[in-house]
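Continuing the batch. This is chain 6 of the set; chains 1 through 5 are on the previous pages. Same settings as before, nothing changed between runs. Recording input and output for traceability.
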Amino acid sequence: MIPIPSGVRVWIATGHTDMRRGMQSLALTVQESLKRDPHAGDLYIFRGRRGDLVKILWHDGLGMSLYAKRLDRGKFIWPAASAGAVSISAAQMAYMLEGIGRCP
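Output for chain 6:
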C-alpha cells in the first residue's frame, strides 16, 4: 500500500489512458488535460482501456513516483465521465486498490 500522508488529495483521471505512457507523459497529462500541477503533492490515478490496470502518479515533495497495479480477475470500478478528474478520499482509493470495489 502507498503510505499517503494526511491531507493528500486523490484524483481519478476519468476516461481511459494509454498504459504504455510513463511518468513524464502522465505528468504532462495532469498538467495539460486536467489543468493541475503534477508536482503539488496530489495523487493521480489512471486506468487503461481494459480496466484491469491502474497507474498512480505522485510527487511526494522529494520526487515523482509511479505505481502500477493489475488485477488478476475483474476490473476496477471507474467513473462514467469521459474527461476531467474526480476527487476521492484516501480511504476510497484504498478500497478500490484492494480489489473490493471491482467488477467481476
